[in-house]
Queue: 4 jobs
Job 1
Amino acid sequence: MGILIKMRGTIESILVIIVARIGDTLLTTPVFKAIKSRYPNAQLTVLAHPKRMEVLSNLAYIDRLDSITKRSAPWRGWFSRKKFDLAIVFGAEPELISYAQRTSTKVAAFRREGMTENPRLLKVALPHGAIHAVRERLLLTTALDIQANDLKLDYIVSPEEKAVARKWLDEQGIATAHPLIGLQTLSFPTKSHRNWPLSHFSELIQLTIDKYPTARFVILGDEASRIHAKGLAEHFPVAVSIAAGTMSLRHSAALMSCLDMYVGVDTGPTHIAGALGIPMVSMYHCAYPGRYLAPLDNPLCAVIEHPLTGTTVDIAASMADISVASVWNALDTLLCSTADIDDPRTHT
């Protein structure tokens, strides 16, 4: 996809709308960086889902962060002048695109069936074949002559959040445990086929403590993850602590930033781990290959693809087919290779 339009005149204000889940929201951070690099003096406003926008907090290149939904959008932007020189909309919801057209001089969005014609709306074609999710999102900026040089995801933990995480680790008696490994055992309910069997996680824990007797594990996620992984804590009462369901998303992410290692299935916290840049092993279902979703430019990320990847996208394929041995080998290799890296718990 080449440049479709060169923006004329001074660009002083830019809007990006991204109403999506945690992972999809974070996958857009390279877009924000590219925009700010191309227009460093422009004010960048990002409107995101009210329950997901917090993952974008503290990012220096976002000047204003607020929320929007397809339900609130139709009521907004009717009585103000054009506030933005350019708007980029991710998603197909006509309510969001209409809001952007009311408030912006020029709007860019991916072409979807049924989109109305508007001379101010630049409709960018989606790729014909599968490409990495970050590169797909950057097609919109490329069409506007905005190039990206940094493909890494970003997430910033505040000092206050870090302090809460350290306090929790101290209360669990694992503040100085090494290696400290986080486990994300569940994806969200509608994508349960992406879950790796709990019995496999149990075998992985045993293999790890056999070689690394001082290893400790933290179960991450929400209340469902806490209930799901309760058996692991009961089977390994010394080695496993459960943080899932006990803290906010931001504090959970701060806890992740203190880990030596992360192991998880394809879900929002795995994208957060990638954005934090911590050593990680991530597992992907053949319907959603890691080649299109795993963190880019992250040498500390070991991607474990389902053995049927490239042959089928059937969600009936079982994640049990990803062997414990393959995950253990990746985990052990990363633990050995990162042994000399500074303890992340000492970083502010």
Note: Residues 13-142 form a domain with the Rossmann fold fold (CATH 3.40.50.2000).
Job 2
Amino acid sequence: MVTLGGDSHKRTHTLVAVDDNGRQLAQRTLLATRAGHLEALQWAGRWPERRWALEDCRHVSRRFEADLLVAGEVVVRVPSKLTGAARKVARTTGKSDPIDALAVARAALREPDLPVAKLDGPGREVRLLLDHREDLVGERTRTQNRLRWHLHELEPEIEIPARTLTRYHTLAEVEQRLNSHHGVVAAIGHELVIRVRELTRRINELEGEIERRVSGLVPTLLQLNGCGALCAAKVVGEAAGVSRFRSRAAFAMHNGTAPVPVSSGNQQRHRLNRGGNRQLNVAMHRIAVTQLKRPGPAQDYMAKRMAAGNTKTEALRALKRRISDEVYRRMLQDERASLGSKVGACEAAA
């Protein structure tokens, strides 16, 4: 089996072929175009038994990955942190595209349980919508901050409570205050109020669209206490198909809720796992924190862990791992139900 490691950039893809022992067989640099992708397939045709290992670079590697999958190739995604570790232990010094591609290939050999890439489905659309909404929320926050400084310059005594500049009636009151002032500062303030109102309207529209899409994809996950539509969208988009993980433990390692053992002698302890997908990790944290706000199984489990000698932080980590397992189970159930409905529809059509 030959592993083809790829280091992707906006203009080019650098490929390095290695055998099962990690020995370099060949290398090639191609243009990041459809013609270049076809050339890569023709170049790799000399090895009948092969797989591709691409560094997970989102938009940079996505088109190349999709073309390989359409051609029937096997592709695994290699997290960037693994390639950095592979470069440190390599005999070659320095950094270049061939060195990086070689590190990707050797990382894929060292880690046999890497997620297998699949063609993008509805999950990516949810992820794009969620990322767009988060960008708009960030833009609105920056606009609100500028608006507050201009209002402070015009009326230092005015006090607008936090998190109220997203409300239409508050924006209307601010607009009325600005009408009593003249000059450039007041004119800019008017523009900022209009922009905040437009952003708020679009953010709300996106949230409604995300909720409609997620409710059809993972209805069981949405029933989990503490998991709202935006949190479920984050999990769906970042997981990119939960069936690609061989077990709930692999999913926990991917989202960073699997604690790292730091035991020594008679002391058995685990510490925080700072690896994994941090976007997925923060989603698990939000679910845990929300569940802990009201009486229920989460509070009972925390009390049980702390009674057994865990600190509050250690108990929270254990809770997040249990939540990860439950999220994995529910998402797998939703994915299988969706697949079953599609198969039934195809049989009915036949």
Note: The chain has a mean pLDDT of 89.
Job 3
Amino acid sequence: MSAKYQIFVSSTFVDLKDERDLVIKAILEMGHIPVGMEMFSAADEEQWNIIKRQIDQSDYYVVIAAHRYGSCDASGISYTEKEYDYACEIGVPSLGFILDDSVSWPREKSDTETVSVQRLELFKTKVKSKPVSFWRGVDDLYGKCSIALMKAFNAYPREGWVRASQVQDSAASKEVVRLSGENAGLRARIAEYEKANSEEHAIAQTLEMLRGNTRDISVWKKGDTNWSVGKEVTLYQIFEVLAPELQVECDLVTICRFVGTNIANVPMGELRNTWPTPRNIIRTILADFAALNCIVPSKRKKPVSDTNEYWTLGEFGVNMLAHMRRRRLANIESLSALETDADK
């Protein structure tokens, strides 16, 4: 039987309308069924449930990204990212297509607001964690999408849709359904095993990178006229001490003070009140952690008057902290001297 695959196409809408139309055309020319969010309202929770059902029924998922994060739900997550997360969550093979950074792009089609830009970059990083293609124009996107889908059809064959007249008798159909369910269960178990092994490997690699990079932490004490000589510590030591504080969330000002007292080991009473550690250095360290998917900007709602910058552990950071703590509890690694001093 010749199956037609349902392919969900996701992106921000107005700025990528031409690109979406071309991808949809490519899917139709391949003889398959495109489905997209333009068929639904992105601002209605009931419509979101409809979109989820469409993704449930889709065989493949395509996301196109340029320089806009897109409209967001009440929690601050864009609907494009929400669709991507849901497709990955339920195991729909996902193909990412990101605009090459070297390509000139209209300003009116780009986000300029800081939070949106940051969230877009984090979303792109998430998409890049899986196989992804970079496109430079609509024609380039058209070709790369067609090739990537053909490869996905071969690498990850899906059930697809067939005419009712092509379906075999009832008994054979039930057996096919049973075997398909059994096969899906086995694939899910294999995927879970591979994911666990892959994550353990990723954690080990990340911890090795953190151990291999050092930063100088200076402090400004009360009564001083300049920064003190910096104390050299590894990013591993900083993350080890800072991560437990980021399990919920922490603002940048508090992080700077915490680094001064618990990493530079200077009593709180001796530190000046305003930025006791260099703000630019702390931001660089946080950017390094974010680049490694350890932390993300907090999405908790704040009062309009609160202009602080808040950070929290990402999913990978939570798993990495748990990995470190398990090793501590199993006495595979002892507490670092830095953490012991901070706890005194």
Note: The chain is about 50% helix and 10% strand.
Job 4
Amino acid sequence: MKKLRLIIVSIGVVVGVGSVLLLLYTQYDITLNSQTTQESRPIRIACSEPWVGYVPLVLAVDRFFKENQVAVELIQPQNQTSTEELFLNGSVDGLCSIFTTAIFQNSEGVNSKLVWVLDYSGTGDVILGSKNMTVKELKGKKIGVEGLNTFSHIFVLQILAKAGLYEKDVQFANVAAQDMVKALNTKQIDAGHTYGPAKLAGIQSGYDIVATAKDVPAIIADVLIFNSKVVETRPEAIGAVVKSINQGKEYFDHNKENTYFLLSNFFNMTTEEMQDGFEGIQVLGLEDNIKAMNRSSSNGNNFTTLYESGDIIANYFLERGQIRQLPNFDEIIDPRFIYAISKNETINDG
């Protein structure tokens, strides 16, 4: 098996993140360094913490980018905040993001294009609480989320709404997903949203699942986005990236054992953690990506599109005054690369 090329970037966390992000979000054009060398340098993609939903991308790094003659550097910062900062300051071209984040960033003038949906979370994202706790019993309790006005916050609010509860009925605490079990143990919170290895650790520690992302379909979607200028100037390379990721998904479907071994080494995860992760998400392939990015596939097909989940997310931001107007999702979602693959076509530069 070929050795994966992995670049580790270590970035310090800046105190006063809110003001820093505000400054970054107002940079209306993300300028990539060394414009003259843009077309020759590798495509740089940043993805943070270990997440099994990135499996098609990991397999593309291992097998298919070279086959499709596209140079790619996969960069893994320490956390999602650092990962997003790299994208916002132009240090990377692409970002493994969450659809909620992409919507908010675009509303702030950060021009990006969504080219692939990696996964929809089902039971992968959960709210953990004490034994036999129900959603209704969260009233008056303190709930841990990964930041206010984030995908984590929206997920919990949607769960509460289904039980007839409102934001005013609970308290929120900002707790990182990997620290949620510790916060539960120390009684800092009564319940909390988490995922990945932390979810499994919480269950093993005796906490119960109060609700899952399956209860609010497609609210949590991991996506791959690229800087709009890169998509405009290097469509052939972006097309090759998307083609390679699709091949990665196809390889995964037919070679589960080999893939588990690769991911275990790549992410330093146990087999149990990986299996639990895959059981909790829907990894999307080409057909599902076409459905997800097609407005006309909405309504009555038992599949939630990005347009449907995007409307829920954007209206939430609008009602809270976080964005000034509803976005035009056709300016965010760019399905031409998946359509090209389905038609066996190539998008050329120029």
Note: The longest strand covers residues 112-121.
